[in-house]
Task: structure prediction
Amino acid sequence: LLAIMTILLAVLGLVVVKALAESPWGLFTIAATIPLAFVMGIMIKSGKVSVTAASIFGVIGLLAAVVGGKYLPHAVTEALTLKPTQLAWAIMIYGFAASVLPVWMLLAPRDYLSTFMKLGTVAILGVFIVILHPPLHMPALTPFIHGGGFVVPGPVFPFVCITIACGAISGFHALISSGTTPKLLAREKDIRLVGYGSMVVEMLVSLMAIIAACALQPGEYFAINSPVPPGDTVALTAQMEKISAIDSKGTYKVTQADMLRMTSDKGEPTTVKLANGTIVNDYPTMVGKTGGAPTFAVGMAHLFAKVIPGKTALSLWYHFAIMFEALFILTTLDAGTRVGRFILQDLLGNISPKLGNTNSWLGNVLATGLLVAAWGFFLYQGAIDPAGIAKSLWPIFGISNQLLAVIAFCLGTVILIKMGKARYCWVTAIPMLFL
Result:
């Protein structure tokens, strides 16, 4: 179980790394959520400010950070333009701090803040999709239906569940709902709304992500998700030619000029500084942003810009979408690290009862440090691997997630039988056998 959690957390972190690497505007927006969460936590903990008022403060501050990120001084922009490996270390430090600190200080206020943003954004995006009815440019069937694709190497089944993950079948949520969620509930009767309702929202998000991705030009979609190292012009040229040659009809045609224009429109840098100090100009940094989050953000930005246009609309909406997604993932990362810490402390408790005590500062720090080091190792390996998620960690992540779901369904089936409600056990037994 702990090994599965380690892989899950590494991949979640890697998605954020791929989205925010070489993106100072996006990184600034996400970094701003940490002090905002601290202030919200203190406001709520004091008892003098309501959760609603604190959340309104947080949302306003977050939107101000999205807009303000465009006008950062050059020195700040340079400081926030991080390589994937640097971001990996930053996420490890964040994951450690979020797991060790009290829930009220960072986890709970961040969850409040992200919940309002998630629900509001999902609702607005759903309305925009219904109103705009965007055409889907991606063919219904691609040459990769049986495997060998640019993004995921496997065939449609079982990779459709692996790729969609939380929007399809995700065992990760079983762990969160049994460890962290109960601490955030005000009353027991909220369980159905929070548990079942959140899964319905998750499903809607996955459907919208598919629509947003398929509304892009197919060639651009594959270019964004291509495993090309930043600044590697030779690999970039070869990949553009490879994508354009998928078929002879020009369905997947894409050029470097197309991707450079997309990069500029989204407010992303078009200059890359290599490890040896060489500066590569006019480089489309949107190429190679694997993991799905940038693809969803580009699709969302185009939809939002059609309703609320403007000179800088695409760049603002793109970074708003990146903020929305990164918040989505980071709240899962910090909650998952906390749950993993509890599991590890259970094991350490067999060595020393003090290490198993969740109120022990030594036990908390030791367990968190070991867990973060474990998933941080895989995260760092993914950051230095040009193919990133698609080549190595993503398939392992998907398999791990499904295995967790099998465990959850198995446990649910046993509990139903022991409660004397065996006639209902087919509800959990059938999907368990399917998985």
In short: The chain has a mean pLDDT of 87. The longest strand covers residues 272-273.
